[in-house]
Amino acid sequence: MDAVLQWGLDFIRAVQSYSNPPLTVFMRIITSFGSATAYIILLPFIYWCVDEKKGLRLGLAVLVSVWINISLKFLFDQPRPFFEGYDLSVGLVAERLGGFPSGHAQNSLVLWIIIASWGKRKRFYGIAAIFCLLIGFSRIYLGVHFPTDILGGWILGSLVLAAYFLLVRQLEDQTDDESGKSSLKKLLEQGGLRLELIIMALTAFVMILYRPDEETIIPGGVLFGMAAGYILNKRYIGFKNFSMLSAAGVQEYVSAFFRFLPGIASAFLIFEILGKIIPKNQFADHYLILYFLRFVITSLWIYAGAPWFFRVLPLPNGKEEA
């Protein structure tokens, strides 16, 4: 066994020597905030109920981070602490893919630091950092990652964040030319809907090109459906929600609540129905195409279909266009 991994295994055993049932329950709850389920619930909520533009950018950043993480897991093919040849007893939850880099550490850092940046106060970054530390530590406590996996995830997450904030600055910069818009923003506006769809299609294609299987197809399919849905909403539907980041009354919060419940329920229903249509044998003809379309269609509903539905609901929507 590699000396670094042996040190990591010894560290996990030392941490687990303080384990007890209440602490284990707490760590399971903490680790759930970095899971795919948390993103499935949180990203639509932000898009529908907080701020649609920020929700789109956050979703794109998280999906790119997820794809990078999954791709590197396949590339490095590193073991987890409970894999055969290490210590089966330390694994308190089940995981399938390789351990390096930690997806929980990487993706939660991207998610929560971006959300903290909306608050524009240092304490929000501090809270997000503590939360990310807890999520990373929970993965060690639960015996599913070596400490080096967590460190690698945080480093990669930091690189994704740096690229994200650089791109956002380019999109929001107003001083690059005489028109008052950055060259990137001007290019996107001149290209219109067709250019935006082409960019998203190419991005999704690149995401599945490296390794076309179930794991890598998911972020590509969701990204394409998300971006296409947002573009269609912007062009044809015109849904804009009030922003919870600014002043909002009780009526708007009630509206957000009654949006989210039918929205998330219908999204899960569509996802499950599409799952029944796809052949169970992953080696069947066209399986991966249908699997890809399952996530594209579900994301299209979340980012275009549900907003259209919200427009016809008799609920107050403070920022919606006429």
How would you describe what is shown here?
This protein has 322 residues and is mainly α. It folds into two domains: 1-172, Vanadium-containing Chloroperoxidase, domain 1, CATH 1.20.144.10; 181-322, no CATH class. Helix content is 73%, strand content 0%. The protein has eleven helices and no strands. It has helices spanning 3-16, 21-32, 36-50, 52-76, 103-119, 122-141, 147-172, 183-209, 214-237, 250-277, 287-312. The model is unreliable at 318-322 (pLDDT under 50).
Number of helices: 11
Name of the top-level CATH class of the largest domain: Mainly Alpha
| Rg | 21 Å
CATH topology of the largest domain: Vanadium-containing Chloroperoxidase, domain 1
Order of helices and strands: HHHHHHHHHHH
**Class based on secondary structure composition and strand pairing:** mainly alpha
List keywords for this structure.
single chain; 322 residues; mainly alpha; Vanadium-containing Chloroperoxidase, domain 1; 2 domains; 11 helices; disordered C terminus
Give a quick summary of the entry.
With 322 residues, the protein is mostly helical. The protein is built from eleven helices and no strands.
